[in-house]
Design goal:
Largest sheet: 8 strands, mixed
Number of strands: 12
Number of helices: 10
Oligomer: single chain
Distance between the termini: 34 Å
Structural class: alpha/beta
Strand order of the largest sheet: 6-7-8-3-9-10-12-11
Order of helices and strands: EEEHEEHEHHHHHEHEEEHHEE
Length: about 325
């Protein structure tokens, strides 16, 4: 099966008062139709900025290089006008902060019906009915009435559900969800995950879940891409990552997750802090936090291909 999205050597930089910040440093990945990919890493790992770059939504002081081919067309080379043909219709993004995604001056109805009217060619009444059904699907009470309300009239959790409904309205080919359930309780998180999964299976939609929590992707995603300091440090299927993590950073993330099958209930935090992206250390950028660092780590490791889609950026994988 050919890839729906092919990303090659994606780089993102920000011009700041402290100098250039390399937020994303040459990542590669493919996304297939119907596949669910988790992109995992701590805050500042570059996971969100990578997808904002692909969507053409970087902040004004940001710039991006590389390729992101969607059906063979390079999104990175498109004008904003051409990108608008794809955003919302072919590729949709759900943001972590619903207050930045919702316009406080417009009713929910106004914000939800424009997309289906523009991209799907629906009339106003059809678009409204479609929006009401999607609000009902994400458990907004009395959606027929509440669709006429404004964002400030909803709780934070309800606003997040509305942004999720908006992302699903046009059943895009790719849905990118940036920490979409952070503001929700665990019961609603599970329901939203099932909803996104159901829509993905029905429409053969590919999904990307951006998260700092490896535990959130178990049972939801097919494959995991682990990022650290702007680079991919490990890739593999969910089962491979959970059963046999190869990179020390991935093992550290897994050890910090509470587990019922662990006799010792102590959580093991990764020591230290992520590096300053404007002043990255030489060699392996994880070595100062790594309990398995050795002499070779003074040099930056390549991403070692382990076969069958697995890879790890660690000198421990060097066969020589």
């Amino acid at each position: 099966m050919s890839a729906l999205l092919e990303v090659r050597d994606l780089q993102v930089r920000f011009d700041t008062p402290d100098g250039d910040v390399e937020a994303v440093r040459g990542i590669d990945f493919d996304l297939s139709p119907g596949e669910s990919l988790a992109v995992v890493g701590e805050s500042g790992s570059g996971k969100t900025q990578a997808f904002l770059a692909i969507m053409g939504l970087l902040a004004e002081n940001g710039s991006a290089n590389g390729q992101a081919r969607f059906h063979g067309e390079d999104l990175m080379a498109m004008s904003s006008r051409d990108l608008n043909r794809h955003r919302g219709h072919d590729i949709a993004m759900i943001f972590q902060d619903p207050m930045s995604a919702l316009n406080p001056y417009l009713s929910i109805e106004k914000q939800m019906i424009d997309g289906p009217m523009h991209h799907l060619g629906l009339g106003r009444a059809e678009a409204r009915a479609h929006a009401v059904e999607m609000l009902r699907a994400v458990r907004i009470p009395d959606p027929d009435e509440r669709i006429g309300h404004y964002p400030h009239q909803f709780s934070g959790g309800m606003r997040q559900r509305i942004t999720i409904a908006m992302g699903l309205l046009c059943e895009p080919e790719i849905l990118i969800a940036d920490e979409p359930t952070t503001a929700l309780d665990v019961t609603v998180q599970a329901r939203i995950a099932r909803l996104v999964g159901d829509v993905a299976r029905r429409s053969h939609m590919a999904t990307v879940l951006i998260t700092h929590d490896l535990g959130a992707v178990a049972g939801v995603c097919d494959r995991i891409l682990v990022m650290y300091a702007g680079q991919v440090v490990e890739t593999g299927t969910v089962r491979e990552i959970f059963d046999s993590p190869r990179h020390p950073y991935t093992r550290g993330l897994l050890d910090s997750i509470p587990r019922l099958d662990r006799i010792d209930d102590t959580l093991h935090a990764i020591p230290g802090n992520p590096p300053n992206l404007s002043d990255l250390p030489g060699g392996c950028v994880f070595r100062e936090r790594c309990d398995r660092a050795f002499d070779a780590c003074a040099e930056p490791p390549p991403l070692f291909d382990l076969g069958e889609g697995r890879a790890s950026r660690c000198h421990l994988e060097d066969p020589s």
